[in-house]
């Protein structure tokens, strides 16, 4: 079942430790089988058919400018050549989930760790760990945008600090509700920029078209207090005014905020706060029905 949310970092087991201390490996592009390239083509074609009118402009432009197409699993070296020239980022291969500090260290140095493996043909809609389709199709196009490029580097730096302060869960919630499951307002309406949505067939439709979830204006301390689901669609999608709002976040010192937020009660994944700016009050039908099963 395609639950875009899929496990990311915190819950799922970290991959077996490879030889290099930074957990990177060679992508080994020439070792991909015809079946693996065929899986990529299937995922790419069905997702690109869904994205028009749903993906934000930066995602569309980023995808168009990168060597990413249906024919084959992208070569990280070719991706990095284009990315470096635009925002100084590069894509490095990893065997799967890496420890938090390794992940942050890479992001802080504008290296995006991408899983090199691709899901099997019989699990097209189920993702245990972020694979090459999630990481390259979902995340890399947004790295072409200067605001996201700066924001993700700041997240890496902030992650190392949050770990020292013992506040990682609060920061991970900011990452989850933006880089993984974020929506943005555009002239034509709400659009997706989160990789977890962009790489999921069913969540792309659920996050933007379904009446069930709430859609709430992004608010930093509110998000830091809000627990999230990793096992199913999100109950609330947070919406930024524009991508520049993320750049503002990158410039904020989170340390005092962690203390302020720690003194307040947490919010459940689908719980509305009276102070929320509600863009869409969801019916909650989907999660109610799921819970009733
Ligand atoms: C909080 C942090 O963002 C999260 O726990 C992690 N995410 C990832 C990770 N490793 C990989 N490869 N991909 C992720 O998205 N390690 C840790
Ligand atoms: Fe991801």
How many structural domains does the protein architecture include? 1
Helix proportion range:
40-55%
Q: Which structural class do you get from the secondary structure elements? A: alpha/beta
Could you state the CATH homologous superfamily? Aromatic amino acid hydroxylase
Q: Tell how many strands the DSSP assignment holds.
A: 7
- CATH fold group: Phenylalanine Hydroxylase
Number of helices: 13
Radius of gyration: 18 Å
Strand order of the largest sheet: 4-3-6-5-7
Distance between the termini: 15 Å
Q: Bound compounds, please?
A: 7,8-dihydrobiopterin, fe (iii) ion
Keywords: Iron, Metal-binding, Monooxygenase, Oxidoreductase, Phenylalanine catabolism
Domain Biopterin-dependent aromatic amino acid hydroxylase family profile: 1-293
Family: Belongs to the biopterin-dependent aromatic amino acid hydroxylase family.
Catalytic activity: (6R)-L-erythro-5,6,7,8-tetrahydrobiopterin + L-phenylalanine + O2 = (4aS,6R)-4a-hydroxy-L-erythro-5,6,7,8-tetrahydrobiopterin + L-tyrosine
